[in-house]
Amino acid sequence: MTGVVTDACIKCKHMDCVEVCPVDAFYEGENMLVINPVECVDCGCCVEACPVDAIVFGDEPRAKPWLELNAKYSALWPNVTFDGGQTPADADQFQAVAGKFELYFSPRPGAGDIGSPVGVARTSACSRCHDETALGKIMRIVRRLWR
Ligand code: F3S
Is 15 touching ligand 1 by the criterion CB < 6 Å? Predict the structure, then answer.
């Protein structure tokens, strides 16, 4: 089961999720990101990292309306693997806005990595994914499946 970006990301784009994804499964639209469900390894790092709770696991009820959108647009939008300063200056103003999809969703692609400032590198890898043992990873996935 994949992670799913919901409409809460629209107009917020905090980018913390991209920085911790161990498999670079994020794709950038004009004002939100999506996750490629085939590439996602369901580690949960991005779910915990998003400051506005915009990402859920695919088997949660909140994910259902957004599963298809993530699959569709991750095939159309460019890959984004690091925070290139995409967060809008007024992101906080949109955090609690209801109906963001109807009001603000854009099918246009974002710039992805190509549009980010040259020389910006990944600054923070998720320590859980990168440092834990293989057994630890397996146990975490098993615990996740039993929830
Ligand atoms: Fe969006 Fe949250 Fe990532 S606001 S860009 S899903 S950190």
Answer: yes
Q: Which amino acid is at 122?
A: R
Beta bridge partners of 57: 3
Q: Ligand 1: which atom is nearest the Cα of residue 86?
A: 5
Distance 22 CA to ligand 1 centre (A): 15
Q: Kindly state the average pLDDT of the residues 38-51.
A: 96
pLDDT band at 122 (very low <50, low <70, confident <90, very high): very low
The answer to whether the beta carbons of residues 45 and 22 sit under 8 Å apart is yes
The model's pTM: 0.81
- Cβ–ligand 1 distance for 13 under 6 Å, the answer yes
Residue 9 Cβ inside 6 Å of ligand 1? The answer reads yes
Residue with CA at minimum distance from ligand 1 atom 2: 50
Rg, Å, the chain Cα set: 15
Among all chains, which residue has been given the structure tokens 């919901």? Answer: 6
Instruction: Please give the domain boundaries of the chain with CATH numbers for all domains.
Output: 3-83+100-106+118-146 (3.30.70.20)
Q: Ligand 1 centroid to 129 CA: how many Å?
A: 19
Instruction: Please list, in sequence order, all residues whose beta carbon lies within 8 angstroms of the beta carbon of residue 54, skipping any fewer than 6 positions away.
Output: 5, 6, 7, 8, 9, 12, 17
